[in-house]
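Form 7-S
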Amino acid sequence: MNKKWEIKTKLSAALTDINQRRDRIVKTLLLNRGIKTEAEKKEFLFPQDPYSLSYQSVGIKSLAVKKALQRIKQALAQKESIVVYGDYDADGICATAILWETLHSLKAKVMPFIPSREIHGYGLNKLGIDEVKKKFDPRLIITVDNGIVAFEGVEWAKKQGIDVIITDHHQPAKKLPQALSLVCTDQIAGSGVAWFLAKEIFSQFSGQLKEFKKSNSLELACLGTITDMMPVLGPNRSLIKFGIEELQQTQRAGIKALCREAQVEQKEIGTYHVGFIIGPRINAMGRLEDALQSLRLLCTNSPDRAVLLADQLGLTNRQRKQLTETTLEHALESWKQKQAKEKIIIVASSSYNQGIVGLVAGRLVDEYYRPALVISQEDEFSKGSARSIDGFNIIKFLRKFDDLFEDVGGHPMAAGFNLKTENITKLKQKIEAEARKEIKDELLVPRVKIDLQLGFEDLSWELFDQLQQFSPFGLGNPRPVFSLEKAKVGQVKTVGRNGDHLKLNLVNDKTGAVFEAIAFKQGKKAKQLKPGKLIDVCFSLEKNSWNNNHSLQLMVKDLKV
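Output:
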């Protein structure tokens, strides 16, 4: 698939002083991330300690927190049963752990509840409420990472004599549920909202912020924030930067066991390890098995039990990977056969496991670069997940068809929904017709956003060290991407089990310096390359470590012969 390169700035060859060039690179990178003033630069490069941030600074309303604290105080005083009602993804599991551990430390009569994807479905609803009433007979339910569209759930809880405090970060609908309190903001993840509320609970009822710091809940907020793909800017940047430091040092048995099982060096944990190695293991249980096992892993104090649970998560994650690949093959074939010309992908099958439809939707977006809906078809009601592309708000789009959904919620880039199976065909027709009108052809061309075009002379360890100031990287603050024009190819070979990846050397003609480059999933391009060939290449600058030897490496995003 051809990609359009968008080079934001070219570094002038007339600027020859290497130190001035590096200063210009850093300044340009900041501007590309919307950072213009000295104050913004300071906040970005030196994020504020999240313990010093107020909940108001992240968009949570004071009245909502005041009402929540009053009701929690009553529950503590009267020894009322409280249920922390979570969600089955990593963000929801981390949020549940944060709030449950906080209330439990204050001697509250509190139990966590993680709904089953298949039995209860998403969010606060009648089935979940009936189960927690039967098990725990609560007088208070506190949701985490869900509830902002739980209109019927809140009303049903009221009828059972249960008060509801909602903490959530998802997009609200036009109206709001009539809960006792809505502790909500879309600036941070669900685990972040839970963390700020937990910090306030601790401050109000314990007065020991030092004890709250010892609770290691910041590492969980960090974990949830990264796995939920929140922008690594503002308060999220604070939660992630300081949370990563806690993850690297934590004595939490579950994290240590996960690192061992996943073969991750704990002191080296970064956003990549959380997002692509640790997070998926926590998510896997909610996709295929019982998400409560992931919660137990995070909360256990027993190293031996943590090892057993971590092994279970690892096994389930491997099964998830295999199931995802099998389902993806079917979805790709279905799309090729039926509607390859449509501007939005919609596939449905009774063979799809509802726990992995979101992953498959994401892979379809990667393959075809257009929004994708994948539906797990059941007899009466079906469940689906959607993923989108840059510039297309999928939740806003899907809410145009509210009359065909039982419920729908999510973010601009991802959404989940339930609908009657009999409505799938009608939904498909309406969505495809609307997509033809709304999605312009130029939106369906994948773009590689390049911060700067550099020269070989700019590639150095000094530049690499300055780029590290921009970490942690993630959504909203991607790893800086650069380009080189007319770089000479040296050695070329394919690597990987099936030769899927491309490894090559790029030679600086002026100095003879050789730079290693690796291009994942671009092995097919090896046929177009030979020593001496000139290419344009876009890449990120990374450190390659092997047997205690370190070298600069170009992580290639795309190349043009």
